[in-house]
Amino acid sequence: MIKYLQRLGKSLMLPVAALPVAGILMGIGYWIDPQAWGSGNIIAAFCLKAGGALIDNMALLFAIGVAVGMAKDKEGTSALAGLVSFLVFTTVLSTASVTVYYKALGLDPTTVPVAFAKIATQFIGIISGLIGGHTYNAFKDTRLPKWLAFFSGRRSVAIMTALITLVCCIPLFFIWPAVYNALVNFGQAIIGLRGVGAGIYAFFNRLLIPVGLHHALNSVFWFDIAGISDIARFWGSGAKVLPLSEVMINTLGGGQVSATGIYMTGFFPIMMFGLPAAALAFVVTAKPEKRKMVIGLCASAALCSFFTGVTEPLEFAFMFLAPVLYLVHALLTGIFVALCAYLPVRAGFQFSAGFVDWFLSFKAPGAKNGLLLLLIGVVAFVVYFVVFTVLIKTLNLKTPGREDNTEAEDADDSHVDKDYQHMAQEIFAALGGRENIVSIDNCITRLRLELVDDNLVDEKRIRNLHVSGLLKPGKNNLQIIIGPDVQFVADALHKIAGM
Q1: What's the CA gap between 222 and 202, in Å, rounded?
Q2: What radius of gyration do the chain's Cα atoms show?
């Protein structure tokens, strides 16, 4: 089950990867025309509309992206299947269609649940992607009689997807209103907790990183699953989903500020300052003979966290080496997110809470006192550095560079290998060769491998490549944490393995 959920989490990264360009376009648009939001400048209008085209259709992107991610060979037919499923769901269960059903059943059409007006959500997009991906895997090799041969193989996938989705629409017709109401109630309950609720969300957001389920939690608060839609409301796209955008929070100074953005703002101090400070703590507490290696490992990961908000390379460097420290990291994230919710400061992102999104969000409708986050970030930097340094030394935690003198000691610390071909060759050899490799895949930072026998893996040889970490999510499964450039290693490994 965990393996399946991790695969889903990886699949979600494909459509999420479309958000940076949307953020850049909308950020430029708001920067050019912050008051009229495009009606006063043609360039701003083009940028805002182009960015909004992606944000407003994230559910559709999820349907296509998840379908491709769940397909065994990532073939394009799976994307078509995801699209077919999404179109069937959103048409058969639209308000207009359900109104017709009510009339046919002799029911009052004015009592059609509002849930059906929100059927085109990321949740339905994910379900459509799962149906499309699994239907593709099941029917791509189907052979039919000669008189139906035209519809054999991949041509049968779209047909079967439509039929399977239609069947799924029947139970969803009855349970969707209940599911929708439960999600809305959950979102409203968290909104009701104001900043404390934002902190609770942020805490669990970090705890779910190791299993890749944080994306599912994020979708409740950032997108339109429960009507919160924090990203869309912050950027002024779909801001009137529910009256939640009118919720105000009493600040620590006695004033009031909108709740819009509270599920994003507090992440900026953590990703831009807190985690880089943790990286510095790893460097200063590392053993002298290993400090050079730790600098190479942590410097790039810290810069990645600061500029782009991609934190996995750094977090995976210590979450399994020192789980207590990772729990502290999750707690600190919750505290800073809650604190920012009660301060007159708001910033948002389209991709993640890095410098690029912070800078481009200044002119967004939901933005407020973005420069104040620099001061909060300095506080986060000091807190993280002090807390991490004290805990590492006091508890003698085995953070990077403090491992016992075993296999890591033999590594060549002169440089971090950026020769992807060489790295792939070393990994290939360390895995035991082609006979021991079942499948090769990757997400945004991890090389995901399914093996015949994980006992044949030479972990020492892999660690000597200065990767951020190794993870074994299940028997005969191995994940190598490489970083944002993992795709180049995966591509090279595919070629070497002939897969």
Answers
A1: 12
A2: 24
Number of Cβ within 10 Å of residue 246's Cβ equals: 11
**Tokens standing for 169?**
């629409």
End-to-end C-alpha distance for the chain, whole angstroms? 26
Instruction: Quick: pLDDT tens for 442-475.
Output: 876 788 888 998 888 998 899 888 887 888 877 8
- Burial letters 23-39, b for 16+ CB under 10 A, else e: bbbbbbbbbbbeeebbe
Same structural domain, 347 and 394? yes
| Highest-scoring range by mean pLDDT, 7-11, 184-188, 221-225, 429-433 | 429-433
Tell me, yes or no, whether 315 lies in a domain. yes
Determine, yes or no, domain membership for 35.
no
Q: Are residues 160 and 211 in the same domain?
A: no
Domain count, the chain: 3
Q: What positions carry a catalytic annotation?
A: 443
**pTM of the shown model:** 0.61
Full residue range of the structural domain in which residue 226 is found: 195-403
Answer yes or no: is 36 within a domain: no
| Same domain membership, residue 297 and residue 364 | yes
